[in-house]
Amino acid sequence: MGKPNDLVQGxxxxxxxxxxRPEAMHGWAIAKRxxxxxxxxxxxxxxxxxxxLHRLEQQGWIRGKWQESETGRQAKxxxxxxxxxxxxxAETANWNRLSAAINLIVSEA
Amino acid sequence: MRWWDRCTMTFRALFGRSAAGARLDDxxxxxxxxxxxxxxxxxxxxxxxxxxxxxxxxxxxLLREQTRASWSWGWLESLLHDVRYSVRTLWRAPGFSVMxxxxxxxxxxxxxxxxxxxxxxxxxxxxxxxxxxxFTLYEADSHHKGHNGNLPVAFGSFxxxxxxxxxxxxxxxVSPWQDYNVxxxxxxxxxxxxxxxxxxxxFSELGVTPALGRDFTEAEDGPGAAATxxxxxxxxxxxxxxxxxxxxxxxxxxxxxxxxxxxxxxxFVFSSAFGGNTLQIWLPVKxxxxxxxxxxxxxHEFLVIARLSHGVTLPMLVDQLAALQKQIQISHAxxxxxxxxxxxxxxDDSVENYKTPLYALLAATGCVLLIACMNVASLLVARTAAxxxxxxxxxxxxxxxxxLMRERLMESLLLSADGGALGLMLAWGALQWLARARGDMxxxxxIHIDGVVAAFTLGVIAFSALFSGLVAAFSxxxxxxxxxxxxxxxxxxxxxxxxxxxxxxxxLQVGLTVVLLVGAGLLLKSFQRLRSSDxxxxxxxxxxxxxxxxxxxxxxxxxxxxxxxxxIERVRAVPxxxxxxxxxxxxxxxxxxxxxxxxxxxxxxxxxxxxDLLVRGAEPGYFAAIQLPLLRGRIFTRDxxxxxxxxxxxxxxxxxxxxxxxxxxxxxxxxxxxDTVFEVVGVVGxxxxxVNAPMMPTLYWPLYGNGYSVATIVVRATHxxxxxxxxxxxxxxxxxxxxxxxxxxxxxxxxGKTTVDSEFDSLLVLAFAVIALLLAAAGLYxxxxxxxxxxxxxxxxxxxxxxxxxxxxxxxxxDGLQPALIxxxxxxxxxAVVVREIRSxxxxxxxLDPGVFAAVAAMLLAVxxxxxxxxxxxxxxxxxMQALRME
Lengths: 109, 887
Fold this sequence. Notes:
The structure holds two protein chains of two kinds.
Chain A: H1 11-20, E1 25-26, H2 27-37, H3 46-58, E2 62-68, E3 74-80, H4 82-108
Antiparallel strand pairs in A: 1-3, 2-3
Helix pairs in contact in A: 1-4
Chain B: H1 2-15, H2 17-41, H3 46-57, H4 60-70, H5 74-92, H6 94-123, E1 134-140, E2 153-154, H7 155-164, E3 169-182, E4 191-198, H8 202-206, E5 212-213, E6 228-231, H9 233-240, E7 250-253, E8 256-263, E9 281-284, H10 285-288, H11 291-295, E10 300-308, H12 314-331, E11 340-345, H13 346-386, H14 388-396, H15 401-437, H16 451-474, H17 481-486, H18 493-532, E12 542-548, H19 557-573, E13 579-583, E14 594-599, E15 612-618, H20 622-626, E16 630-633, E17 647-651, H21 652-658, E18 668-671, E19 677-684, E20 698-702, E21 710-716, H22 725-735, E22 741-746, H23 747-754, H24 756-790, H25 792-800, H26 805-834, H27 850-876, H28 880-885
Parallel strand pairs in B: 4-9, 6-8, 15-20, 17-19
Antiparallel strand pairs in B: 1-10, 1-11, 2-10, 3-4, 3-10, 5-8, 6-9, 7-8, 12-21, 12-22, 13-21, 14-15, 14-18, 16-19, 17-20, 18-19
Helix pairs in contact in B: 2-3, 5-15, 6-13, 6-15, 6-16, 7-12, 13-16, 13-18, 13-24, 15-16, 18-24, 18-26, 18-27, 19-22, 24-26, 24-27, 26-27
């Protein structure tokens, strides 16, 4: 199973931004969604998730807001900002370029 | 809007730190609970679910730390931590901290105060429109230097200059040394005020708009015009309590009515090398000056203020005017016509006299600050050394070199900042005092603590903090970690090596102190010389006061003479008056007019050079009253007055200049301007016109009849001459209640006024030097005391092995005195170079005065010995058993 430090540096940011694209969600849900979509391959540890979330918030790409969660308890929901959307596009393009390049090398052998 | 988001985030992170921390805990708690709930759903029991969740969560404290670190104020947090730590360490050593802060406060305060003065007086532009284009012009003469070579301008020359440069330069003439009597009116006392004549365009040229009313029109600046006057703001506030109804009213000057047309704004102050900041009233020149004065090239009564158009430079203008003046001199070949022109920026003209003293004082305070920094650095080094083990352990445990250095810097920054705050208060107090003590200084009104001064203060604080902090940090020697840890007091190398830096600092400190002491010594000696300089007459128990007769009431010379004669007779009758006399001015009280004179009996001694004599009017009784000795011939008699007043008494030096090796009695002198001939009847002793200035040959002619409407009453008594001031004033008001009496003071006070500069400079530099000496002594004491503590063991062993106590004393004294001696030599050499810069501030004192240098050396050695004797004595009294047991 992939550990977070196996993730390419900066990939976690991309995953978070991508996950938040359709709707705002709290930290727990973000971790769960990444886990689900990646078919349980990627498991985001809290130890990297929350520093990353706060860093993204500092940079203005996502904005946190305290709201009632599905269980009725207050939780901090993160939503993508306009700047975050732009950043997501940039990072997606970057990722595509990078992964294509790595694929070329890996499939060569 | 991203930057806005970031700003608000940052601010929230900064100011809502604890709230944000709590929210973070909530957020993480929510995550944990979710995990627990999921575990329970997967079939675990509650307890096991919680354990599993916490296990997978990892270290919550670390997670919190990491998340907090992503808030952008991590550096601030660690900075606050440093501050807290430094405050605590400083708090634990209150003695050290208070001493360091006071030292810093003195250094910083003195610098801030002096910088404020220098900026206000020398650097700030004048408060006029485009002050950089304003220049003050003078005549110059190749044979005759006057006030720094600047000779006032004759109105004829001014008119010629003005018309020749009309297209590129706007010029106005100012005569700032007039005085008028303001008559008693509406219950106010009569008074004599300083008045300036000016061209009508003077105010518009400077860009000054009256606060009330208007300034002069061209038509008002003429002999036939109605009399108009513009008041300064302070005069208007003082005498008319700021009444706006004054515009259009009449005031009486010299018993003639003048219509007030304007009041100047409070910010308007005129100052020049010839004074001006005491002016109260402005009058249009062509209305006031006698017609002969307006056309002559020989009477020099004016300054010329010029506004240059852009593209014209001062050298260009001065060249043009000098050439023009040369032409004038050729076509009017009289000795009193000058042959050149010169000029300075208006600012330089006003503050030239203060430049050297102020910069010298600023240099002195700079020295004090350096010494203060070195002292604090030295104190910090001592503390670092004392904490050597602690620091070594901390670096062994992984404390970063930079982090430890940052702490040193933080400590010195805290000390400097506290010192700076205290210093700023000291500076403020000093400036308040200065404004009161030196109201006579040009531009003293421009001295304020403002933004630039605040920035300067911050700069000085930063400099002091860096200087003392870095010195301390670099001396902490982090590299010798193991050595420090192993070092016990049996190994002495570390301690003494570290004291090396402090010794070096001490040498510098002592050197700077010596420079300051030498400067102070020279200024003090010069001041002493000045105080004791002989003006030529006994100055004790002499009272002087001025009266001036308005021409409107005393039109004819006969009336003036009659009044003055009656006045002095009555003054002589006042009980307690031993002798009294009248003169135009008393010795030591100023220039008061000069004339170029030729000897009728023989041609000029040297071609082109006509002796310039100071001229005083005197009444026959004056010489006896002031006790000026008659050396040859006689004093003029009572009936040599009015049309028979063509006799003169000359001073001894005038006799030497005019009649070398011949008898002056019976010879004749001719004034070069009016062509009047005077017979020399007597020779009297020399007097000084200003105790700061070299003696001038002087001529006395009868006060009765040479056009004097002003007089100085000189009263001599056997004792308590001050008590005669009121009775004499009463005599004047009995004769004419409208006549103001001004400048009532003893001759000693009058002379003291001219030495105030010298007194001020010498006392201030002395104060700085004393501070420096105290600091240096404290430094010497500190270093030696530290060395003794470091070497307690060694000394104990020496004594145990039989060393004589005297030899221990000698050893320690030599140790302490060595840096003082080196510093003394360095300082004396540096002084010899530096004192040349203050030559212009010295009176009758050579810069390399051996007495001052010797006295400074002796004093410094004495103070150094005193500072060293206590720790050295303590070392020699050590009980060897105790010393050895201390380990």
